[in-house]
């Protein structure tokens, strides 16, 4: 494997563990905690799919010809994903938590990256995860990583959007009508 594959995996793991430790919602000041185990599901799916994809790559199952260009593309996608994810987290500030919760002083964020997509931190997360599959350049790995991760993340987005509708009502429904979920103009 190329050095950038390990770099992506290590940076991703460290950054997400730091988020898990530092950005959990506090019980006090939380009006609505509606995670519904979506965080656990998401991390089980991500961990399992990356492990399965790595296994298929090591075993040569579905392996495509991996060139430096493919790995460089994967690395570029990862950098873009990290930039989008962390910009979204920084733009949300203290309202960002790793679990789905609404704080007592929560405000709907509709500017910055949130003007383009409703869930930019999840878009960044998807790009980071998908970049690992790109670096592995394995047809089985692509399917194993991309499809289950997208489905688990979509479940989490549905949970989060129900909580946001419960809190912000018509304001969030109107925002949904004008702003894409993950990919501007597509989804």
UniProtKB/TrEMBL annotation:
Supply the alphabetized keyword list: Membrane, Methyltransferase, Transferase, Transmembrane, Transmembrane helix
Tell me the domain of life: Bacteria
Molecular function GO terms recorded: protein C-terminal S-isoprenylcysteine carboxyl O-methyltransferase activity
Gene Ontology process terms (BP): methylation
Asked if the Swiss-Prot or TrEMBL record annotates the protein with the keyword Glycosyltransferase, the reply is no
Q: How does the record say this protein sits in the membrane?
A: Multi-pass membrane protein
Q: Does the keyword Methyltransferase apply?
A: yes
Please state the Enzyme Commission number of this protein: 2.1.1.100, 2.1.1.334
One Pfam annotation reads: ICMT
Mind telling me which residue stretches traverse the membrane in this protein? 42-61, 73-92
Protein name as catalogued? Methyltransferase family protein
């Amino acid at each position: 494997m190329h050095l950038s594959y390990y770099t992506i995996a290590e940076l991703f793991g460290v950054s997400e563990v730091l988020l898990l430790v530092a950005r959990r919602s506090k019980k006090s000041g939380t009006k609505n905690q509606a995670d519904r185990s979506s965080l656990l599901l998401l991390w089980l799916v991500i961990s399992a799919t990356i492990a399965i994809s790595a296994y298929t790559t090591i075993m040569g199952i579905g392996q495509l010809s991996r060139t430096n260009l493919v790995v460089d593309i994967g690395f570029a996608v990862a950098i873009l994903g990290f930039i989008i994810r962390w910009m979204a987290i920084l733009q949300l500030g203290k309202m960002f938590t790793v679990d789905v919760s609404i704080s007592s002083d929560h405000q709907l964020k509709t500017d910055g990256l949130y003007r383009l997509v409703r869930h930019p931190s999840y878009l960044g997360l998807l790009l980071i995860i998908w970049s690992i599959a790109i670096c592995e350049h394995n047809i089985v790995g692509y399917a194993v990583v991309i499809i289950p991760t997208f489905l688990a993340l979509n479940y989490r987005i549905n949970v989060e959007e129900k909580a946001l509708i419960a809190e912000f009502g018509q304001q969030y429904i109107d925002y949904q009508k004008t702003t894409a979920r993950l990919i501007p103009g597509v989804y």
